[in-house]
Design a protein that fits this description.
Blueprint: E1 10-16, H1 21-30, E2 37-44, H2 53-57, E3 61-64, H3 70-83, E4 88-91, H4 100-105, E5 110-114, H5 126-132, E6 137-144, E7 154-161, H6 168-191
Parallel strand pairs: 1-2, 1-4, 2-3, 4-5
Antiparallel strand pairs: 5-6, 6-7
Bound molecules: glycinamide ribonucleotide.
Glycinamide ribonucleotide (GAR) binds near residues 18, 51 and 115.
Length: about 190
Amino acid sequence: MKKSIGIQKINTAVFISGTGSNLKNLIKFSLLRNSPIIIKLIISNSINAKGLIYAKKYNIKKKTYGFKKKFLDEKKILVDLKKNKVHLICLAGFMKILSKNFIKRFDGKIINIHPSLLPKYKGLNTHERVIKNKEKFSGCTVHYVTSKLDSGKIILQKKVKIFKNDTVKTLAKKVLQKEHVLFPKAIKKILS
Ligand code: GAR
């Protein structure tokens, strides 16, 4: 991966599907003087993604693609990314699975945040499954994206302790707080 030299920041795209708290956090991180990234583009698969408000608020370009025709939409996204000279893609609560071909085009340059201690609890509904299995710990992971779901090389992880009275909601909240610390840290780790 290209490294940031001096004040030269890596053009980054953030992909979202929902609330966008990680997006907001990454934008704030990108605005720090010594941050290695600049966010050039926000991609969403839904016009209803709440996180799109941050595009307007922080004056960042946004594009929405429904992913009904995944191949065509990914082709258009690749054009958007090229136009904006994007060299890093952060999946921040992006709930669509990117094709092998797309991942190949950005090999080693797509990272994802996942709300579990991978390799445990890949896929959806992680907190539900973690609570149901009475796990003592959960957490979050930032990893490289490969064509195998939630299986790419781990960059960083953070553990969270689960108490007896934790629910899916309280666990999700605790994990999300850790995500907001972990994602910028992971970006710094791979770019410096
Ligand atoms: C986060 O917890 C993220 O880890 C998770 O979605 C949430 C998005 O929150 N991602 C996945 O489950 C990906 N499989 P946000 O929209 O507030 O950043």
